[in-house]
């Protein structure tokens, strides 16, 4: 299998950084072939390599891909299976309960944002001399536990916006539905909105949301993320009343495999409702609409949900994200603009413009740059001309700390209707 240019660069960077670090990260968006990259690394490493995952789908995905790439099936450690080979894929739930001290020379952690959790750390402390590669599309965690506590740095990162621009992921369009959903009373737990509280708030709006999906996505294949299994089941029933081929799937579904297989083969008008089951380890490339009804403050979780629809597929023009007017006390909720904007001020400005737009708007790096330029120009207009050189030096492609400080000073000046000097 011939690697894409960025995958080749990732492999090179990982091997080079292992000369400097023992524990490193690879960050690739969903749909950009992280399994291909880490299987290539596993095949190249001397000694024994362990690929560590937390779900059956991820375990089998890694093993199947490795066999297709290199013609041999890796070993497997899960439940009663204890087949250790040169390359082995293991379940963290099984391995955390056993002693594997010094059994592996390299450890590759799939979905590495879980790596700082106690279960993973219980195993990793048994392997103090192993080289460790963590692989993730989302290096930040909702509970604010930094991966920097364990990993020494990011060996290679390929962004979603770059992948879209270079044609490896599909274009993304966002449509804000003019439906106001008041989130101000939703409770917070472990750094994010509490799912039971979300469900209670969201329940009265479900019929209007179903009507919006009927209006804007009747000719698309849609995945809907909801906060609770009960609500996912209820919403699937509701969508069937609107003429959709809608099903719900959850971890306890006895026919889970059959439902997922049905949806993979289904056409336009099919809808899969789930309560966060499908954020990892599931691929359906022809999904071309994602509806996030599990609002979140965590960019990593939001990116995981959207990532179910970003893969390329023959005949697929773009991914449509349906968003809503989620009202919160602070601008902390993730929206489509959060996918390409790390800076909250730019993301908020883009979100406001998306809300004002009449139809779906394509999310591009050029759009982000335009919003940045507008914000910076508005701030610059409030400054003394004598500070223009300092201002221009601060306007980088992304917001530098100085540019942000100037914007803050300019905003305060605008509120007082008087110009200010640039912040030091």
Report on this structure.
The radius of gyration is 23 Å and the shape is globular. Residues 382-400 and 417-424 have low confidence and may be disordered. The termini are far apart. With 424 residues, the chain is an alpha/beta fold. The longest helix is centred in the last third of the chain and has 16 residues, at 365-380. The strands form three sheets. It has an eight-stranded mixed β-sheet. Strands 13-14-12-15-16-9-17 form a seven-stranded mixed β-sheet, sandwiched between helices. The protein is built from 15 helices and 17 strands.
Round the Cα radius of gyration to an integer and report it: 23 Å
User: Structural class of the helix and strand makeup?
Assistant: alpha/beta
Calculate the terminal CA-CA distance, rounded to whole Å: 53 Å
Give the overall shape, derived from the CA principal axes: globular
The averaged pLDDT comes out at 83
Report strand order across the widest sheet. 4-3-5-2-6-7-1-8
Low-confidence stretches: 382-400, 417-424
Major sheet characteristics: 8 strands, mixed
Number of strands: 17
Estimate what percentage of residues fall within beta strands.
15-25%
Query: Helical amount among residues, as a percent range?
Result: 25-40%
Treating each run of at least 4 consecutive H or I residues as one helix, how many helices?
A: 15
Keywords for this entry:
seven-stranded mixed beta sheet, eight-stranded mixed beta sheet, alpha/beta, 15 helices
Structure described in brief:
By secondary structure, the chain is α/β, with parallel strands linked by helices.
